[in-house]
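Model the whole thing, not chain by chain.
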Amino acid sequence: MTKDEFGPNPWHQTNWDFRAAFNFMFGSAGAGLLVAAALSGAAGNALRAEMLLGMALIGAGLVSVWFEIGRPLRALNVGFNPFTSWMTRESFAAGLVFVLGLAAAWLGSQPLALAAALAALAFAYCQGRILQAAKGIPAWRVPALIWLIFATALAEGAGLYVAVTVLAGRSAGIAMSYLAIALIARAIVWSMYRNGVAKTAVRAAKAKLEGAGKVLIQFGTIAPLALMLIGWLAPNFARVLLPLAGLAALATGWQFKFVLITRAAYNQGFALPHLPVRGTR
Amino acid sequence: MNAPEKSAALATSGKRATYCYQCVAGPDLLTVKVVDGVATEVEPNFAACGVHPGGGKVCVKAYGLVQKTYNPNRVLTPMRRSNPNKGRNEDPGFVPISWDEALDTIAAKLRGVREAGLLDASGYPKVAANFGGGGTPQSYMGTFPAFLAAWGPIDMGFGSGQGVKCTHSEHLYGEFWHRAFTVCPDTPMCNYVISCGANVEASGGVVGVWRHANARERGMKRVQVEPHLSVTGACSAEWVPIKPKTDPAFLYALVHVLLHEVARERLDIEFLKQHSNSPYLVGANGFFLRDAETKKPLLWDLKRNAAVAHDTPGCDPALEGTFTCDAIEIGPDAEVLAKGRLEGSPAFSKLVAHVQPYSPEWAAGICDVPATTMRRIANEYLDHAQVGATIEIEGKTLPYRPVSVSLGKTVNNGWGGFECVWARTLLAVLVGGLEVPGGTLGTTVRLNRPLAERLESVTPGPDGFMHYPMNPTDRETWSPRPNIRNAYRTMVPLAANGPWSQALGPTHFSWMFQKETPKGLPTVTLPEVWFVYRTNPAISFWDTKGVSATMARFPFVVAMAYTRDETNHMADILLPDATDLESLQLIRIGGSKYIEQFWEHEGYALRQPVVTAQGEARDFTDIATELARRTGLLEDYNAAINRGAAGVPLKGDGWDFSLDTATSHGRDEIWNAVCKAASADLTNGKEIHDLEWWKENGLATKPFAHADWYLYPTMVAQGLRFEMPYQERLYRIGKELGNRLHENDMQWWNEQLAEYQTLPVWKDFPGLWEKSLLKMGGTTKDYPFWLLTSRSMQYSWGNNVGIQLIKEVADNVSGHRGVIINTGVARELGVEDGDIVEIATPLNKVSAKAVVRQGIRPDTLLLIGQFSHWVTPFAKDFGVPSMNSLVPMSMELTDATGSGADVVRVSVKRAGGGK
Amino acid sequence: MTRWAMVADLRRCVGCQTCTASCRQTNATPPGVQWRRVLDMEVGEYPNVKRSFVPVGCMHCEDPPCMHVCPSTATKKRPDGIVTIDYDLCIGCSYCAVACPYQARYKTDLASFAYGKATASEEQGFDPKRLAVATKCTFCVDRIDAGLAKGLKPGIDPEATPACVNSCITQTLSFGDFDDPDSNISQLLAENQTFRMHEELGTGPGFYYIWDKKETV
């Protein structure tokens, strides 16, 4: 025997499907958008629109997952375990986001928007923790995943913000730099996560993640940075290039999470550190 | 008629004791939990833990009984076929009828048969009956055996698995050599087992599995020799992947090592001299040298330096050398071959010379097992044998030889089976390990009588050996007119003429000869009435397509039908019998019985109606009684029950519970009498318990001596020797049989006649299947794989393919969903796990999902169980094929015992073409 | 204190599936829901291949990840170590299922039966509370509690013992009190070498696998 541990091939989890994935896709993009909007200094209707869009995305994610749970009428029970469950905490953070975000949108208040953004950051962090606490899925329980989910939330949100802002005919301004930083941070955390996952996940999961990661780096990091650079150097094209860069940041983050949850979520499988002695050694 | 008894007194809730005997490794004693009149749960009968040798546990198959009861696919009313045309593609058009109509129809048919005569023009019984599962249906058919006994001659020799799905060679030769219808190690005391394909973990039942688990934990080493890594291989210390059908060479190599590579004194010389025919002097013609007057075989006494009769007390027989003495050598048909001063050698000398060529190096090229492995195993076997050791069992000092060799199906039937059983028995004899504690034991008898008392079946026979009820081969009594269609009495002397002999002949002949009866036998005919119960030969036999087509020609078929299936598809009448949890019967338990049931108790157990029978299902006893009454056989039927056809004679020393033979009795009345007789039998008449007591208690036993597991003390007490290693008697009857056949110009059995040898030689056994392949029009290059099968514990004998729970849990065991193929080979063929592959012979092909595993030889494929159902509800959707549809039925693949093996050469490719 | 735990002696297991069938029946789980499963594992390459049968199910962990993640507090751990699910609280989010490293949890959204429609025995066992919520091995907690109430000893008296253990035909499975040094399983653990599944994950399974006797014994 050449291996220390023996086990049959892990198989893909069947408990969470695209509906769960949508929560992580829409939710963190929405949270990221709230953060970008609050940090951008936007005000008035622009702020309102961005806040509402961000919350709509978070809401869509939650509705999606509501369709997945077995007992939707008991959905409120989700809040019963703030002591240890990151899912409960996520629901609390979401509640806070909605309260603060709606207030900010109603009043057009930047301080409230900032408070909502803080709640959104907490929400994004909870999402990372939710996945990382799922010990049964080796590709999820890597600690770096918390920060990857967090970083991609910021990147997706910033991307969306830049795209929406530019398409709305406004200048993205400092958000461009913020997006660039978020993209680079996401790439760095991806690299950390990749190292971590290499030690735990099965080959099939790693192959799926490699593919998704390649897209994340090539089309989600290098391409948008290049587009932004070109847009900066050639402002005439910026109106086209910057939204493209933003959407690339968003779409690649989504595809990564979709793959993470519905394609690379192989379970632990079983492994025997020792084979049983059958009669004689 | 009597209304069927539907146990009005059934408790609506609680636990009821009963048994499961769905497979040959039973019975298992269990309780069934009933809630509001509905059976919900099976549990071990914990009250039986103390007496049952498997801790009172219950096999997985029994857990399917609840679903079996409530399966919505059951046939729950009698049915009549409305479409007169029969065939696989004909819809039988079954329509519900009343019990009266069904029974009247059958009775009218039977009365017609009786009036015209019980035998047809060929001399074969007009009525035939098939029961599956190694005799287990008898534990469910109530008093039907009494009906069969009352009827008279019945052909029970249509195969449904016998001969090809059993350990046929072991049944015949095992019973001949050591009253061993089946053979197993004395597992609780054994330390080293060489298991050639014996799949005890799948077919040993609760007791087998329990004993081997204990032995493993104790440190018993088991070496599993077989082409694939079965569940038994998995649980063994070592797996030796041997080439299919080469086991005789492997075993011969072990014998060679013991006889040519180790010091002679390490063998059990005393056993060889005193308890085997090793010292018998063999003359120039291969027959024993005998005393001219007494005709007793001679041996050379080293003390007297003279030849003496084998039973001369106080002699020290020579095992080796050449000696000259006054003697007579008698050949077949009592022909004197030589007389006067004759030269002879002890049989042992002959043996030593015989196995000289069979070295491990020789065998390595045949078996694809390294010579060093075989040599090591032979030496390990000897090292563990503890020759000379003794042990005390219940005050008796017996030899202790904790080594054994066990053989599995396919190793143990068809060509090569004889050689394997001989070599296995010989390996035990060489170390004195036959029928002694720790060694190789027989479990029970089925060809000798009495069935329930193995040791009592031992009586003195010729030449110092046990009596064996051979079918005659002498000129006066041998007959070319067999009593049944498979011709066991004519063709297979060893099949004997005991209770089970019909099932142990060449049972495929009954099907095969329907096309063309070979010269010399009366034309094989269709039975006019065929009863089928708990068997499905259209699935379970070989060449299932041919068998189905033949049975479609049967004019009148009565099937006791649990659900529709492939055999009752051809039936004229379906009768729904009450199933396991719905009906009543008392059976014997305990003593020693296959597969590894060695009890320290014996007695009886009751199967009782746990719940009310579903629909119109009726207890088999009531069906039998009604059939007897309507056929005018009531008196004989009741008399048969009184004689013991229900398992125990109703009259004994000091008790008489006999039924009035003139009247018809209800189920409970009959079994009440049986219960009383059984309790009287158990207690010598001291305690009489009625049916109600048995229903409450479930079972009752008395002690069975552990020492009675072993035949050795009985042999010693009667001064008998084991008829090993030299097969003078077999050789003689083979020659005589040949004479008889040739006198009748029957030349088609000549190949088989060559199997009657004094010391069997190795033949190219795999080559026989390769030759058969050529005959089918294929080449070994085009059909490079050996397709084998293996038992599934979840299904074997269980008649339970329609049970969802069983299917679900069986699928957890690898291979139940398709064909197992070696990983490396699959890669070469571009086959991935789950791909559909086509498995083909030149004549037929099937498709299966590939189950890619490392634990199988690259030249071997394995299809577990036997599926390919096309009628049976639920099972017909499995999508798993069976090798039975690929295995041809042929004379050239039939050995001298009338047995074939589950082997066939095939090709395999991805469906739609390989890469 | 009492800590109920199970021991599986892998040397003895033959993969017969009796425990699985018994569990399915005793707990009236729907088709495919096997709270007690036995894996058929193959290791190595031909001809050096080993095959093992490994009973698995809920490990009733000391530190159960399923309980920590459960947002509704439906999953709890009793003082005696048994991890339970409150079917009335569970929202069926399956978070526990992905958190469990032993693939022990099931969720069946719709009622399903062996042959489509419920048979009489299935109707007896059917519990609509179990639909669309997480379910898993309970160590037959109802048998244990009822048995204890009668003064019986779980793991010794069949009536108070998990069905899989009662049914096991190889004595692979044993059940008892880990905290009682004289218990059946404490003795087994003292005499044999054991491991727990995925011990490195720190879940502290209450399920031990024997693979060999101890050298010193």
